[in-house]
């Protein structure tokens, strides 16, 4: 059960009129599904209470409930202020990556390096995990793949030595950012904290990031709190927010730990890192899709000009089959399909169905390509031309059934409609109405 489904279910319970009973039912549903999604019980209690008050203030009704829910979620996610990456006033910005073993530190270090590299920053990654077997080799492979420089020295087992030497090199002045990958442990212990304390002293980091595994649910919150208490952390990166993550952790984490959520990792690939933005998460939780996020993710792969053109086309509702195909092609380079699909307006509900969607050898992409290839240029540019006889011809041309063709065209059209609604004034309200 995704949160999106849960909210949608809860929302369905309200039948438009001033119905206290319906509101109670909806709130119950909301509470149950939030708990099921692994949101902390105290957070749930506060949230449900607030939604109740805020809905009543507005007058009981579906729109009012949605607005109250949206506002309450937003407030909850807002805690902490800073988002994304903050550069120190004087380079290099030094980041200490911390977390338990297996939480995703090394992968996230690579993702961050890649993210910064795409922003034309010069990055030095430091291999300071000298505990885990093959940890240095893992980082070697990651940095080679994204073409970012690595500082390593396997002749010592002392991370303080490595960090000190790496920073000496970085301070020669040409690096914008230094990312230090550290060792983790299976659980928090004094040895780990002692080592981190020493590395922290040697590195004098601009910020300390804690990488939390969202699959560990409320444990992620607990360990983050302990790390905050013991060594101090400036931000949390929530990893593995894809797959089977129940998702609820993201909702309570910043308010529970009182440290901002900075990034979200949503896959194993280097591209699968997103700046955490409350509105995006709220939009996605509520199934509205997110044009801004899509455009940003897209622009790191296709060039910015093309991405701008695309966004403006989506907003104007002029998005055609050629764009759709082009989009699919660029998505191939982008890693996780699921997170992207969730960002395409109107396709939020599809993300679950597409959980294991592998674009590189996906039948669906092949089908879409085959379908578009069987269209004339005019049809591609103007989807409205597609009447039954044209669809029949296309189906024959690409060897698909007409049912399949209809389904794909419908998906495409829905995406366009939703996108247009979403970007128009008052679009949110229309969308909410459509969702019922
Ligand atoms: P470390 O021990 O903290 O350095 O963790 P690693 O970076 O080695 O990651 C442990 C495992 O989690 C690896 O198999 C990664 O591919 C995987 N992983 C890391 N981040 C993500 C993520 O955002 N999504 C998914 N699905 N897997 C991830
Ligand atoms: Mg590691």
UniProtKB/TrEMBL annotation:
Pfam families in alphabetical order: SRP54, SRP54_N, SRP_SPB
UniProt organism field: Sulfurimonas crateris
EC number: 3.6.5.4
Oligomer status and interactors: Part of the signal recognition particle protein translocation system, which is composed of SRP and FtsY.
Stated role: Involved in targeting and insertion of nascent membrane proteins into the cytoplasmic membrane. Binds to the hydrophobic signal sequence of the ribosome-nascent chain (RNC) as it emerges from the ribosomes. The SRP-RNC complex is then targeted to the cytoplasmic membrane where it interacts with the SRP receptor FtsY.
Residue span(s) of domain SRP54-type proteins GTP-binding: 260-273
InterPro entries in UniProt: AAA+_ATPase, P-loop_NTPase, Signal_recog_part_SRP54_M_sf, Signal_recog_particl_SRP54_hlx, Signal_recog_particle_SRP54_M, SRP, SRP/SRP_N, SRP54
GO MF: 7S RNA binding; GTP binding; GTPase activity
Signal peptide: none
Keyword GTP-binding in annotation: yes
Record note on domains: Composed of three domains: the N-terminal N domain, which is responsible for interactions with the ribosome, the central G domain, which binds GTP, and the C-terminal M domain, which binds the RNA and the signal sequence of the RNC.
Record localization: Cytoplasm
NCBIfam families found in the cross-reference section: ffh (TIGR00959)
Enzymatic class: hydrolase
UniProt keyword list: Cytoplasm, GTP-binding, Hydrolase, Nucleotide-binding, Ribonucleoprotein, RNA-binding, Signal recognition particle
Binding annotation for GTP: 99-106, 181-185, 239-242
Designated name of the protein: Signal recognition particle protein
Chief location: cytoplasm
PROSITE patterns: SRP54 (PS00300)
